[in-house]
Structure formats: C-alpha cells, structure tokens
C-alpha cells in the first residue's frame, strides 16, 4: 500500500475474543454469547445471555484520543437531556462507575478504551428491505433534525478534533487516492468533484450552520421498529460525531439506497423534508445540497474503490452497491433539476442565484408566459418583455438569471423588499396564531391605537380589510349610508381600486369608453396641473381649478344626485405626480362638505412617509380637520394583504347601528397582517424613514434637475419625498409631451437594469422604496443619463 493511501487503512484493534470475554466479565460482570458487529475502525460485539441482549461492547481504535470517546459519550448524554424521547443508546458504566476504561491487547500490546453501550431493540435498516420507502426517509430525516436541534447547544473541546476518513469537511485529505483509480470516467468525475469542493463546496459549507453532528446515520446504524419499518427505533454508533455542517448529516442519511433504486435524489428529497420539519433549513443550505450530495457520493465511491483495487487483502468495510452508480446518475441529473426538485419539495420559492456570480439556471421565458396565460388568462405585465423576478431585497429585484434591477417602480413594499424585521414579524405571528378575526387578540387593538396616535381626535377608529380597494369601497359605502347620497367626485385619470364600487371612482378604468358607458353617479374634476394645465402659472390657480368642483356638484344635481364623497389621492400618482397649487385640496374639500359629502384621503400611495410626511395628505396641504376618512393599503403592511379605513368612532357607531349591523371581514386585520403593519411602524421609526424620504428624495430631484440642463427632453421634475414625477417634452416652450420618447426611455432604462413606470402619456412616475440611499440614486442617475443619451 502506498503512503498516500494510509488514510484508507482501517487498522482495527486486534484482540482475541477470549480476552474480550474475560475483560467484560471483570469490568461489567457480564457473560454470554458475543456476536461481532460491523464497524469501520473499532471492534464491537453484541452480548446476549439468558436474560436477552445486554448491550454492545465497543473497543476503540488505538489512535482514538481519549477526548474523542469522552465527546461521544457526553454528546449522547446531552441529547437525552435535551430530548429524552430520542432513541439513542446511553453508556452503561463499569462496576467502578466509569463510562469507559483502558485495556491492553494481548496480541498487539496496544492500549484501547472499552465501553458498554445500552442495547436498543429493533431491526437494522440494511437488513429490512421494506424500510427503503418515502415514509422511512422522512422519519429518519425528522429524527436527525431533532437530534441536530438538541446538539446545537452542545459544546465539547474535542468537537473539532474527530477527523476521520468520512469527514466531509476534510475531504481533500482523500484527493491523493484518486491516482489509485484507473483512468476513465470515474477518475475524471472524481477529479472534477474534488476540485469543485476545494474551490466552492467547502468554502460554501462554512457559511451554513456548523455544529456537532452525528453524520453517520446510514442504514447500518439505524434501527426500525419490528412492527413498523418506517418508524425509527434507534440511532447507533456515535463514532463519527464531530463538528461539521448540518448538511453533512442530511447527505449521509440520503446515500442509503434500496435495491433497484434509480432516482439518486428520492431519499434526499424525503430526508430533507423530514429534517426541515424539525430543524428548518435555509434557502442557502438547500441550494448547496446538490454539490454536497455529489461530494459525499464521490467520497464513498473513492474510498471503497480505492480499497478494493489497492488493498484487496484488507477487504472492504462497505460494498459499493450504489455509490458509484448514483454518483453518475446524480451528476447527469444536474444541479438545476436537483435544486428545483428540492425547493419544490420543501416549499421554497423558485431558485434564484444569490448574487450575479451565482449559478444561473436556464429559463424558457416563452414557455413560462404560455404556462401563465394557460392557467391565469391573458394578464397585463409592466413591460413588453415581462421580467421573471424570483427574489428581492431592499431597493433591488432579481431575475431568474441573477440580474439585479433597481426598483424605481415600487409602490407596495415601501420599506424595502423583504425587510428582515417585517419578515420576522410575519413569520413569528404566523407560527403563533393566524385565524378568523372574530377572536380576541392583543395585537389588533394595539396596532389600531398606534396607527392613529398622530391623527386628529376625530380619526380614532380603524376598520381592517384586506386591500386598498376594499378600504376605499367600504369608505364610500359608509359615506353613502351616512349622507344618504349616491354621487361621487374624483379627479380625471384617478385610480382608487378594482371593486365594482371603486372602479366607478377610478376614471382611469373607464374614461376611454363611450360617454354612455360612464358611471352616472360620478363627476370628474379637472386636474390641478401647474406645469401643463389650463391655469398653470395663474396667481389664482387654486381658485380657478377648484371652481370645477362647483360645476361637478351642479352636474350631479341636474341628474338628481348629491355627492356622498370626494376621494383624493393627494400623491396624484395617476395624474403625473403633479404639484397642485396651495390650498387647492382644502378648497374642494370645503365645497364637497358644503354639499353634504364626506372627504376620503386615499393614502394607499401617499402615506407612510412616501411624500416626506407620515400622512401624505398632511404633507400635500389638506387640512386634517376636513378629512372624514383615511384609507390605506399596499405598503401599510409592506405588501402583506392589509387595508385600513380610519374614521371617527361616532361615524362608526352610526354605520354599525344602521345599514351594516354585522360588518366584519373574515381575514381583514388578522393577527399576521397586523403584525406586519406593526413591524412597518417599527421600521419607519427606527430607521427614521420619514426624514430619509425627504433627504434622499430631495437629492434625487436635484440630480434629475441637473440632468435636465444636459437633456432638453426633461421638461419638469416634481414631487415630494420619495415620489418623483418627470414630464418629458419635445419642446420646452410649448411643453408638448414626448409620448413616444417616454416609452423608449422606459425600454432603455430596463436595458440598464432600472425599473421605472409611466403615468399620463409623456410622464414618468418614480417611486423608490424608502430603503434607497445615495448609492441607489447614483445608479439611477447614471442609467437615466445613459438612456437619455441613447435617445439622442
């Protein structure tokens, strides 16, 4: 045997059975029959007498440090202390109360440690063909997940010292053995797998959870119950226990295949599901499993084939029943297929590279579009070539190939995509309670109180629903009920929802239709545009624009109706993010209230710091004393389904006592939604996002105005906080909107990985998340500069 192959030498202890029997009688007072058990580096016998099995005697390898044996014993003690129902065998002490003792071989003269391990009843899996089924794999995964959860709090000074042949974390020690494998496919594959291990797999494993792991729950070390081959009866042999990634545990279990198995990852899928049920995996860990599983099979194939070819006299501890075969099958299956199947089995979202250097998977965009249209119908996407987005973080969104897009289209996760504090709040509440809202729970009332604390006294009561559309719909219903009126006032081009009622309040949805199809109870007000409107630049523009409310109220009166509500999005997102003249909102609110209607401030896009103030209508100059309803949606829970109607308790009592005595929403304001909403408020306060909205928003507008000096296509830059409107013009003097160029600019920005959207023809609406900083502003401005230059 060559020097580099010494690692493959098992070198088990050398003892005559007669000496062992004598020592066992002396140390433990036991006699009986001794049945040799299979073991990698140690010696083991099962002892039976007339009373039945008494335990397993184990004699450690001479090279085994005493601290390693102590580690193994104390690991079992810790598991049983943490999880007494786990089926692991404790050590039986000697007559002198020792967990182990020292003995000397009469043959070799070497000193070894001896210990007696309690007998565990059951059938060994490798002798139980019917055990190789999905239920078994799931149960062994769950059992080892529980064991790892118990071991995460265990410490021992020798935890990192138990280095052995099968140690995944030190697999590179085996690489010299590859030269002992004949040239050909196997040798080439082994070489590539170990090269990848050095360059990628091992560094990546260090970023997973590492702790003490058993890492030897193969079919020779697991027992199942006599009456049910899927139920775990015992986990044996802690000889390989050591500090490693928890993924080493999973792949070791998963390399045990039944006769006739052709799918190299069927065990892995079910083992991972079981493990995840007890010790949840992260997406990063799941995405690494293909490489780790392939490495484990490569190690097993190399060790066994090397021994077989280079030291036939020593024989093999394990037969290569499946390792090499499954190594090739797994490699042929490929990372993409394996990772997709794992993510689907564990209910993780579709795979996406961790960063631009991550491994991208092939995507068939046309096939995906066809699949969606087949099952979802023909739906509208933001761009002509829809983006396949698979994950997002902060101000960025990532496509399936790992491309990062700066999200300036954002109008939902306003605190930033997947904000960790909000994500945790949702997960923690969902783990505790998520049910019908008819039950009492603390968080709902706490959230309502916190949400309304800075509003005027008359806005003190919350009704929770599931969306902004529902919130606006309910606000109109209450306004109609309390006023006795059916008419409504909105601005031209407004959008307030998709229910039957809010669609009527959304001219954007119907104003392109013939006038005969326009809702009769709605009147539209001229938009208060101070850049391109009829009264732009007029000193009395507010009065002139507000006079249109008189016309609208009169028009309703001619049809026998009065206004129940004026609904306003003071962000004016659907109107080109125009800036109205001072006092305009107050003027039309006064006219509505004088006609017996209520004022609804639609804060779906204006609120929560978007416009540089917590409440957008206040920042826009609408006197809060003139607001009867505040409605919220979209960002109020950072994208989790939640809508809110805020009104006075007096109005609420009148409505509940009249038209709707049983008003409630089954899921509106459920505990998870309120936890998300509460976490949003935490983030706004802790990260000072209202101030940041002003600071970063002002910076963005200033940089855009600098661009306007270079690019005459930019006619106007406007907005408040993190809301920016850009009007593009062909001629600055005549202010003619550049409609075609607007579409082209959106396309150019996507090429440069920035997502923006349009409002009215010739206008852009830029809605960054409040997570943006100066770096995102720089990226956006550079992309805009290049895109405008490309347009000429």
Automatic annotation (TrEMBL):
Keywords: Pyridoxal phosphate
Domain spans labelled Aminoglycoside phosphotransferase: 44-271
Database matches in SUPFAM superfamilies: PLP-dependent transferases, Protein kinase-like (PK-like)
Cofactor(s) of this protein: pyridoxal 5'-phosphate
InterPro entries according to UniProt: Aminoglycoside_PTrfase, Aminotrans_3, Aminotrans_3_PPA_site, Kinase-like_dom_sf, PyrdxlP-dep_Trfase, PyrdxlP-dep_Trfase_major, PyrdxlP-dep_Trfase_small
Molecular function terms from GO: pyridoxal phosphate binding; transaminase activity
Pfam family, one: Aminotran_3
Family: Belongs to the class-III pyridoxal-phosphate-dependent aminotransferase family.
Protein name listed in UniProt: Aminoglycoside phosphotransferase domain-containing protein
